[in-house]
Every structure is written in structure tokens, then in C-alpha cells.
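Extended Data, panel c. Modelled sequence:
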Amino acid sequence: MTADEELLPVPGRPAEVSANLARLADTVARLRGEVDHAHAVADGRALIELAKGVLMERLHCTPADAARQLESLAGRAGLTPLEFAADVVGEAAEDRITEVAQEFLARAEGEDSVAVRLRTAESGVLAAGDTQRVAESILEHALRPLGATAVAVWLAGPDGSLTLAGSAGFSAEEAARWRYVPPGVATPARNALLERDTVWYPTLSGAGLPSLGQHTLSGGGRVAVPTGTGGRIIGVVEMCWPEPLPAEPGRQRRQLEALAELCGHTLDTWDGVVAPVAAGSGDFLSELVDFVDGLHDPAVLLSPCVDGGRLTDFRIHHANVRFADPGGRPRSRIVGTRLLETYPLAAEESGLLDKIRRVYATGEPFRAGSLAVTTLVDQVPLTVHTDVSVTRFAGNVLLILRIQDDAAKLAVLLQHAQRLGRIGGFEENVVTGTITWNTELFALYGLPPTATPLSLHELATHAHPDDGPAIGRFLRAVLHHQRPSSTAFRLQRSDGVARHIRVVAEPVADAAGELLAVRGAYQDVSSQHWTEVALAATRDKLAETEQQSIERNRLALQLQHAIMPPAKGPIDMPGLRAAVRYRPAEKEHLVGGDWYDAVALPTGEVLLCVGDVAGHGIDAATGMVSLRNALRGLAATGAGPAQLLTWLNLVAYHLTDHVTATAVAAVYDPATRALRWARAGHLPPIVRHRDGEVTTLPLIRGSLLGAVRDVTYQEEEIRLAEGDILLIYTDGLIERRDRPVQETVSRLVTLVERHEGGLEHQLDTLLTYSTADTDDDTCVVGIEVRSASS
């Protein structure tokens, strides 16, 4: 088996394949090492040949004699011929290398391999006649050992511009785009020129400056070193690293400055590239104006305005006849003005000025399909949408500003309407069979834009079988009867998704009435369909719920009326006369739990009570019945009001389903006209004395029923006189959302004072002039004291 055959992989033999791959990798590594060694030998040979030339010039000998002298002198010095050649070249270059470079090279002597490479770079600089070769030599022999991957050598112009004299490590496209940097553009190289010192950027992204290689080396470090001869700075050497640099340059700074010094003498004599013509050059600018006038697009030519070495604005140098100012001003009013004078909002809202500056700085053109440009016309902002194109021409900027016409706006609006409405348009030529779909229709069918559009005759094959008859009627109407028609069907896509689609189409006929084409649109109505289904189900559910609510409210109202009829005449009892007014809530679903009672006890006393169960509906009504009946049974024991409320609280807490309520309970003795009363979270009663004075009983202690298990209620006693009227009411009579309870109770007292009359007239007055706004049910009980014999 030959060596080549051993490297070939054999299917089905994994071990041998792995071994072959390993041998192949070793071979590649060996060949790469041989190539590197060949490069090193070539570099060394160039250095030795250069040293031989120096010896021939100084000793006036032949090349063979110079070679023997080099080998002999190297042996005496105890150095290799390559190391001795580096020393000879270094000594010969002393008149061109500054002390900084000598110090750098001297420090590098400690590492033989580094010293040889640095001397080789130096020899390449001295031998090369153009700056491009200088940049390549510096990168290969000096900067790569330091981790750098790119270098650019800039020639500084008298106007502050920068011309790329040589570069290495950048793509040809990038180098061509950055061949010239106009004056006033802030870059790392320009900052080094302004400061006349080395500038060090640990990361280029942190500096925020446009620069050569900004897209590929944005996360790496950058160093720019000014260079020149005779104390005169003529350019900048810009060195790039792929990784961030330390914040402090340290010893490496001196090495980089020495490398920049090596470029000084070559840069001083470099004439390989002529800097672009400045903006003020009359011949070039007139040619550029002619170019702008020849464009079919509306365009303006902008010239940079540099103040104090910095770019501040652009001047509108020229506008062609097709240019239409967004503000409607004639060209004569804008030509010659500054951009920010004519369009003061360009730097803020649209960012147009920043985009023009970036194009001017980097040379990268800018395009925008729809950019809002706002201008002030008589101090009134006017905004228009434009198609913008910005391009740099030497030291000027060409700005094309095309205002979108109504047709373009309508086309854009139509595209958005089709996208939002999920509408896909089509046209089918029935003569040629050509079918045209828009992008949205492919998306509706779940097909890629490269798929073949489907014919109307294939519609039924992609629809639910049950929709076949409807699709057939639709096709007959359009294709046979030639009249517009529409139908809805369930689309069954190849990806398993089912959509509800509505299709509408119209025929296109020639003058003779022959069908030429069919055009129309599909719309995805799935959301509408499922919404209608959900609404129908919701309506059914609401109807059922509403019927149940009506039944519950009717039952609660019947229960309430059975216990407490809304209209009931006065109740005559020993020593008093009682009357009741009950006003239900206006909304039937707010049937509440207000209740009252007046019961003659076996002891001859009278039990009076008013209560209000929390909540509304059937639960409140049944809770009211439970508490009212419980209090009647408890009152038969002869206990006082406080004890009765204590027992009633236990009933509410234990024997009802989470019922809470407020109540007032009173026991009146006709013989003594003494009224004992207690309250459970309820508003205290009001007494209208026979002399017209109205008082409110004190707010004695007592929490609402059913809240806690063990409660102690306070009991008070008051003596009434014949003709006095006692009023007990629920909060539905006075409660307001915008007023505190104290204020509404005070107004109720005033109302009782101002209206005289009998017991029933008093109660009617209270209901008529009530200012409550909570739409709660209301219960008012009035007791008029009479003589015991009446």
C-alpha cells in the first residue's frame, strides 16, 4: 500500500479513518511549519544580503569578499551570521533612526528571535520605497509578535485631512472606502494629530469614533502614534488589536512609538496617492455641479463647514432644478444657506445631520426608503416623508431628497392594509393560464413565495369537502355567468392548519364579452369566525344566567314582601302607635336584607327592632328572615335589649351562613314610658319631642352581628313623653358616596325639625326628601307615644 493510499479513508473502518485523519492533520501542521520556516529564511536572507551590501559599500570589495567578511566577523563576535547582519544594518541606519527607536531595539536585544524580526522590519523599511510595503513589513515583523492584526499609515494634509498611504490587515474594500478622510472628522488618527501625542484606546467601541476597520475590529484596542521627521509631524501610524488593550500602555508604548518613527522618512517622500481635490477647488466643484444638474433625481450638493478644526455643519452649495424643498421654498432661498439654518430640526427628530456626518466621515453611503423630514415654515413645523440617499464625493456630500408622492403613499398604505387585514390579492389569466399572487396570499396558503400559485379550479381540492357545493356556485358565477361573486370556505393547508377564508372575485372581459381574466382577493376571516362563535356561546350563557338571576331576584322579592309588605298601615299597640315605610332598591337585583318588627310581649312591653343584613339578593333575604324570627323567639324570654343582641350575635355567628348585620333593638314599657335600647353597629335612633326639639340618641358601644363570637353590648334607657316620636332607620335613608355619615345624619335631623305633622306624614317626608345616592333599600320605623289608655 502506498503512502497516498494510507491517507485515503476506508468506509466502515472507523479506527483506520481516525488514524488517517490524525496523520493528515500532522502532515498539514508539518507543511505549515515548513512554509513558516521558509518565510523566516527568506527574511533572514534579505537581511544578510542587505548587510553584505553595507560591507561592500564600506570595504569597497566584491560580493564574495563581503560574504566571507560577514561570516568571519560573525565568528569573531560569537554571533550567528543572521544576528551579526542585524547589527550591521542597525549601525548603518543610525542616521535615520531616532534615539527612541534605538532604545526600543536595544531593549529587544535580550530576546534573540525578537531582535532579528525587529531588525528585519527595520531593513524592510529602509529598503522599501513605498509606504504600502512599509506597512506590510511593520505588521509582519514587529506588530504581529505583539498581538496586533492590522496597521494603517496616514499622511496628514495641510487642511487637516488624512490620506491612507499604506495599510495591512484590512480588506481591500475597507481600505478603498477609507482612502481619504476629510478635515474635521473625528477619528483616532485625527485625535493623535490634534494632541500631537500617542492616543491609546483600550477598546474602539468605547471611544465611539468612526475609523478604518470599525466593523471587524470594534471590540479590540487601538493605538494612534503621530510620526514625522525633524520635529515636524507629517502623519499618523494607527495600529489595531482584535482584543481589548490594558488601560495603561506601560513599556509597550515606547516600542510602538519607535515603530512609528521607522515610517517617518518613507512617509515624508511618499507620492504614490494624490489627495482628493478640496471642496474649494473651482474646476472640480463646477464639474460636480454639472453632474448634479444632470441627475433625474432631486439633489443638493453639500460642502462641509469646518470651524476651529471641527466639522459643525454643511452648506447647501447647489440644488438642481428637480429639487423640491419640503417647505415649498424656492431654490434661491436655500442655496448658500447652512443645513441647520434651512432645516433646524434635521439634527433632532430625523437625525438627518448625523447620517450626513457619518457618510462624510466614513464614505459609506446611506439609503432610507421613508424618512420623516421636518422643516419650519413661518415657525410652523411641516413634516413630509422622503426617500433619502446620501453619498460622499471627495470633500462634498450629495444629498438626494425625493418627497414621496401620493401614489407611493397609497401603495405603502395598501401594503399595510393587506398585511393587517390578512388580505391576499390574485389575478388569473384564463387565456394564457398565468396566475399572479401577492406575498400575503402565499402566507395565507402556508406556501413559500417560490411556490406555484394555485388556479381557481383547484380551490375545492384545498377546501373542506362540505364546502364543495358553495365553491362550485362561486366558480359558475364568475367563470360561466361572468358576474362578481364571493363565498366562504374552510381552507385546509398542507401544514395541517385550517383557516376560514372568504374569497371575492370579478371577471375581466374584452370588448366582445369574452372572458380574459379573473381578479380578486382572499381574506383570512378565522378570527372573525371564532369571535362570532364565541359571542354566540356567550350570548346563550348570558341569557341563561340572566334568566337565573331574574328567578333569584323574584324569589328574594317575594320572600321579602311575604315578611314585610311594602305598604302597611299604622300599628296600634298599648301606649304607642307604630308606622313603617319601606322603599326597595330601584334595581331589582339589589333586593336587600332590611327588616323591622314590632311585637307585643307577654310582659305587656313592646319589642321594637330594625336591622340591615349585609349584601343583596336571596342570601340577604334569607339571612334577614333567620335573624328576624330568631329575635322574636328570644324576646319571649323577657330579656333586655342588650342580652337579646348578645344572643342574636351568636345566632348570626353559628347558625347562619356567614351573615353579618346591623340592628337596633328596643323594649318599650307603656306603663312607665321607659325605652331601653341597644345597638349592634347600627345608626342610633332619633327622637322628635312634642315641643319640636329633635335629638339623636347617643352612639353607645356595640359591634355588628355575626362578625365575632363573643360581644358585649351596652344598654341605655330614655323616658319618653306623650306625643314624642321615635325614628329608627337603615342607612339607605341617608348614605351618600361623597359625604361623611356625620354630615348626612345632621341633615336628617334638620329635615325632621323643619317638617311637622303626624307620624305617617313624617315618614313620607323623610323618604321624599332623602338625598341618598347608593340605590340601597330603605326602612324607616316611627313610634309615636300615646297614653296608656288609648
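The longest strand covers residues 380-393. This feature is highlighted in the accompanying rendering.
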